Amino acid sequence: MKVILLSVGKTDHPLLSQIIEEYRKRVNHYIPFEMKMVPDPKNRKHLSEKEQKSEEAQLLLKKIQPSDYVVLLDDKGKQYRSAEFAHYMEKKSLSVPRQLIFVVGGPYGFAAEMYDRAAESISLSQMTFTHQMVRLVFTEQLYRAMTIIHNEPYHHE
């Protein structure tokens, strides 16, 4: 199984990019992990919230194959403790044949088409994070899950 983090827009802050890249490399020690992004919609300042979400959905859906298992990172999704997320990833590694894609939407969340395509959604917190911070938090939690699965001393309860 390959894990992909698919997001709208790039990470602008160089320090965040550096830390995210460090965790991406660490995760790749355990499983194939890739980060992909689609650009922010053009002329987004002139688009309504609904139009922007729809354009983002079209760009995201082009990156997703029919056989991919899609999970939205969404504030309305199910929340996990770190150890529970590790168990979740372990189960997915046995049941998802090809690609497990976690999707970070734009600033207004997801269009209905994305909810229709997704198998489920996960919330990283009840708090709101910037989309750039979501990439960092998710990548660190994925690394943490891998260390829990492999009984390595990174996570402490």
Architecture blueprint of SSEs:
Layout: E1 2-8, H1 14-28, E2 33-38, H2 49-62, E3 69-79, H3 82-95, E4 99-104, H4 112-117, E5 120-123, H5 131-149
Helix pairs in contact: 1-5, 3-5
Task: Give a structural overview.
By secondary structure, this protein is α/β, with parallel strands linked by helices. The chain has one domain (2-149): Alpha/beta knot. 43% of the residues lie in helices and 22% in strands. It contains 5 helices and 5 strands; from the N terminus they run E-H-E-H-E-H-E-H-E-H. It has helices spanning 14-28, 49-62, 82-95, 112-117, 131-149; strands spanning 2-8, 33-38, 69-79, 99-104, 120-123. Strands 2-1-4-3-5 form a 5-stranded parallel sheet. Helix 3 (82-95) links the parallel strand 3 (69-79) and strand 4 (99-104). The longest helix is centred in the C-terminal third of the chain and has 19 residues, at 131-149.
Shape: globular
Strand order of the largest sheet: 2-1-4-3-5
Return the structural class: alpha/beta
| CATH-defined topology | Alpha/beta knot
Q: How many strand elements?
A: 5
Radius of gyration: 15 Å
CATH class: Alpha Beta
Low-confidence stretches: none
The CATH fourth-level homologous superfamily? SPOUT methyltransferase, trefoil knot domain
Q: Which bin fits the share of residues in helices? A: 40-55%
Element string (H = helix, E = strand) = EHEHEHEHEH
Average pLDDT score: 95
